[in-house]
Amino acid sequence: MKEITGATKLFGILADPIHHVKTPQRMNEHFARIGYDGVLVPLHVRADELASTLAGLRNLRNLGGLIVTVPHKTAVMDLCDEASDVARKIGAANVLRREPDGRLTAHMLDGEGFVRGLRSTGNELAGKTAYLAGAGGAANAIGFALVQAGVASLTIANRTAAKAEDLKARILDLFPQARIHIGTPDPSGHEVVVNATSLGMKEGDPLPMDVSRLEATQLVCEVIMQPENTALLQAARQRGCKVQYGAPMLACQIELMAEFLGVGAK
Amino acid sequence: MKEITGATKLFGILADPIHHVKTPQRMNEHFARIGYDGVLVPLHVRADELASTLAGLRNLRNLGGLIVTVPHKTAVMDLCDEASDVARKIGAANVLRREPDGRLTAHMLDGEGFVRGLRSTGNELAGKTAYLAGAGGAANAIGFALVQAGVASLTIANRTAAKAEDLKARILDLFPQARIHIGTPDPSGHEVVVNATSLGMKEGDPLPMDVSRLEATQLVCEVIMQPENTALLQAARQRGCKVQYGAPMLACQIELMAEFLGVGAK
Questions:
Q1: What sequence ranges are listed for the domain Quinate/shikimate 5-dehydrogenase/glutamyl-tRNA reductase (chains A, B) (predicted)?
Q2: What percent of chain B is modeled with pLDDT above 90?
Q3: Are B123 and B92 in contact (CB under 8 A)?
Q4: For A138-180, how does the pLDDT look when each residue is reduced to its tens digit (9 = 90+)?
Q5: Nearest CB to B59 within list A7, A19, A53
Q6: Are residues B80 and B138 in the same domain?
Q7: Contact B42 A18 (CB under 8 A)
């Protein structure tokens, strides 16, 4: 990477634990690729010290912004000055831009990263029918992004139906024209199927949906990156479906984060 | 430099302005040379926001410590938890180590850097008679370090004599056996002559001492790094003196700072 000087713009990722984060590697590669004089460093912050840490970090005049990950995505919403409509409706953000006057503007790009990841592999979402398993953090971000990307309809399936209903209501608040249904474990009859639960991360996890109902015409998408080849994706391929791994979501997020943070080639 | 990951230890330099600082380049080179997984970044902090910024930064669990420069060297003394005797007597620090529990320990290495710089060019100070021009920040640090390095005597010369007297008194508080005199602009009769004023940085500055009194047996030392070849050093060489440039002080400071911050090869 480029030499760090007094003129280098600073960025950080807030996380706890911190060791596993990959954003420093990816973002610093991105900066090098576009020739931008910036550096992103890990910032290991405990949840109970987030408020005072942010109060200090926002004073740094050469700070461009912060990436936010577990466990801080929800808590930053009370600590920022402005937030995008989507971040507000989701109640979580994964990026904070520091404005020149020190204000922090929050945005949630997890879902947009997922959509751009699909586009990067040639899959447009406009007009498609979509099935979303889950109603937690990732599902919230992706649900909003699918609707924003113009899906014809969105079916939300979650073990706890009340959480699916709540997500539906919040999406309709922002996009009143959206067609949103509450689904069952059966994903059949949708063109795009997305697992946004964490089921599949651990060996022996139950499947996130009824894979016997997958159809060869479907595109089956995973948010899980580790393992790359989840039981869901294996079953989907066996049934002749196209599949989308979790990794492109992260790769596209880096670009989106950089754009939101005002990072440009120079 | 090495790739930054979630496991990389973080260091920063607090300054305002920030663009001109060279510590990021030097320290990151040092980390690379010894194979240490650390990164030092610029932190642009205004004086009136130093306290709240430090309160936030000290929460960063992967922060190893902070280098401190203009205008924060004095102010950090009220914001740290512990300080070395020398830093306390000088009333200023240029490095803060973050202890594992978040406490900040302050130390002043400007003077030790100067002494180690002299050693690195083969000049021992023990037993020598020393003349110090100035009684400001740099002179304070160097005055203490000269006595600590075992000079036979130290003569302090400053336009405002009361500041020289004050420095003398504070050195004697910590080193009651030291032989310290208040001097005049005449540096003759000392083996080592040090300019620790800022005179010589700007074109047209008056000389920091009476150079007509320099003697060929003397070693004449400069703290000014820019320009490298000050009017004092030019005059000293014309009179046959050995000279010491300002740069080795900074190079040796990097090593001293790294040692104080607990940076080791790994």
A1: 123-171
A2: 93
A3: no
A4: 999 999 999 999 999 999 999 999 999 999 999 999 999 999 9
A5: A53
A6: no
A7: no
Q: Which amino acid is at B7?
A: A
Q: What are the Cα distances from residue B262, in Å, to A66, A198, B51, B106, B136?
A: 27, 40, 24, 13, 29
Same domain, B154 and B208: yes
- Pairwise CA distance, residues A114 & A127, whole Å: 17
B265 within domain boundaries: no
Q: Are residues A36 and A85 in the same domain?
A: yes
Q: Is A73 a catalytic residue?
A: yes
Q: Provide the number of structural domains found in chain B.
A: 2
Band of residue A265 on the pLDDT scale cut at 50, 70, 90 = low
Are A58 and A172 found together in one domain? no
For residue A137, give its domain range.
Answer: 111-249
Q: Which residues of B touch A (CB under 8 A)?
A: 1, 3-8, 10, 15-16, 18-22, 24-25, 28, 39-46, 49, 52-57, 59-62
Which residue in chain A is spatially nearest to B42 when comparing CA positions?
Answer: A6
| CATH number, residue B206 | 3.40.50.720
- Clarify whether residues B245 and B122 are in a common domain: yes
Length of chain B: 266
Rounded Cα–Cα distance for residues B27 and B181 (Å): 37
ipTM value? 0.89
Considering only CB atoms, which chain A residues are within 8 Å of B45?
59-61
